[in-house]
Amino acid sequence: MRVRGSAVELRALLRRWWGFFFVILAVTLPFFSTVIGIPALPLFWAVQQGPGWWAPLALLAHAMPAVLLCWALREQMLPKRWLQAESALPLRRAQRHRADLAVLLLAQAPWILLSAGSMLAWRLDSPAWMRGLWWGAGLGFLFSLLLSSGLGLLLMQAHRRSAQTKPATRIAVRSSIRLSATRSVGTWRALLWLPLQRGPARPVLEAQIQGLLAALLSLALAWLWPMHAAWFLALFTLAVMGFAARVHSLALRCYEALRLASQSLPLADAGWVGRLMALALLPAALSWLALLLTLLTGPWALAPRAAPLFLLFGLLAPTLAIVFRGGTADLRAGRWLLIWGVWVALASETLL
Amino acid sequence: MTVDADFSLHCEALSFAYPGSRRVVDLWTHDFAAGLCWLRGANGTGKSTRLKLLAGALTPQYGSVRWQEVDLLKQPLDYRRQVAWVGAEPPAFEHLSPAERFAFLAGLYPRADAAQWQAHVEGFGLMPFLGQPLSQLSTGTQHKAALAAALALQTPLLLLDEPLNALDAASVDYLRGLMRAAAQASDRLCLVVSHEDLGVMPSATLDL
Question: Which residues of chain B have a CB within 8 Å of the CB of A264?
Fold first, then answer.
């Protein structure tokens, strides 16, 4: 049942993201013959190194993408809404672990397939230095899989613990009922801020903070290594646009129940569009201010034309990416990449 | 603010079907008078759906609803200011405490009365729970919080879906007292869907 449920969740996820996968695949296809060899390389390095520290480290490096997949897909593998029902079932710990392992294999399937494809590509190429390493690499692959599955199991347990109900806490108990009843709670506070703070929209707040931190980190790196600042500005544009889209998509999902509930209240439904857009663009706006400050005070000279255009597009790009959301998934992905492409091109010309 | 004495609520050919399903409400036409109206019917006859349509929570595929001269589809915000609805499901906005929830709603409904809310809070025994988010309260307490808020909004149209569900004996008595008073009202309508006997004499009964 778990595997079937997870497969349904994964299919839904794939439907939402297939446009982006398609565009990324189209972009990376010309380099496919070069890139396909990379996933299996740590396995051969591990065997070549022999006993010592480097071999386990290489295997751990190979296991990490699979662990990342387990982490990223944990909600699809074990939705929080299932946890209470699962706890109520007469299941032994071993049965839960077996079910976890089955869905974890499903989550790791892309990396397993990629690694197998990579090994096959090397097998066809058969370079001299790999001869005699094949059995060891195969065993290493198995060990890497065991390692990622073990770490995946730990992640699942942490996921279960994090979802357990916290003890009831009182919030802002006021000394007088009259005071609390007559002090109006505004729409923005009740429907936007408190859900962010207390629960239904917490993932939105987390994504906002992550987006802001990613943008600030890329600016800090640009400051520290001015020689490579253009690269870090490109990273900045990716972080800002990526997180703006992510926050907006999360906000649409997390606030949907509140939006539907507010339909029976005297509240204009159109107001939701603006509210959710404001949430998505808040980290982008704060990042833009940090960008402005960094560019003006940084250890570099600014290009007189490209720099103002880059800053102007910094305001436009995340907004455009969110405002135009119509069309098919690949059209949306293409539009997003086009907007980002223009911004990143300006980023490369901004610093002299 | 006073409520107009000549109460009128009229629904005309109201129709609704959930996606991929048969019509649950089919060309429903009815005139409601003020007082306490009990809407009865077997499971699946569309009682809750009718209440949601009258509340504006669902949009009808056909037909109209008018309170006085205010049309639900043409003037949705003006209409919704006249309606309070308590569904059978756990109340919405469960991240808010009962006090915050009422404070939020009071800003949206012109006749909301904080003194009445306090009276209902005491009547339903909600005092110890005012500072906790609804999500942390029991089903019955959530339901009582929703009832207290809806009653205090003082709207001319009050829609209650299974209001006696999950209530303790004291709260049932308190609510019956309020319904008894609603049955005598000439300026507002309390429309109740309930499988249980209301325990008070309604001014009208509507069988589906």
Answer: 52, 55-57, 80, 83, 85
